[in-house]
Give the backbone structure.
Amino acid sequence: MSNPYQVLGVARDATDDEIHQAYLARLRDYPPERDADRFQAVRRAYEQIRTRRLRLQSELFDTELPGVDELLEVALKGELGQRATEERIQQSIKASAVAWAAVTSRFRAP
């Protein structure tokens, strides 16, 4: 996964408006008929960080932890034994809690 901030050419602490302006500028730089792959990369990057909420989620799940919903779906299909599934769900929940604490600590007032 490429860094969406680098793709758009903005700082991590950029405002929603700065990110939107950078997105529009990149779309002008890489029109789909000229560079379809770059155009898609710009669109994906913008969708990933276009609001503060999405930026938090992006940073939280930057490690690409498996989602609990995904794990439950696998379990319902019977692709894993129940014990293995429960262990993976517990690991995912613990990892998510640790990641969430790390991300939110960056935004607390001093």
Summary: The mean pLDDT is 75.
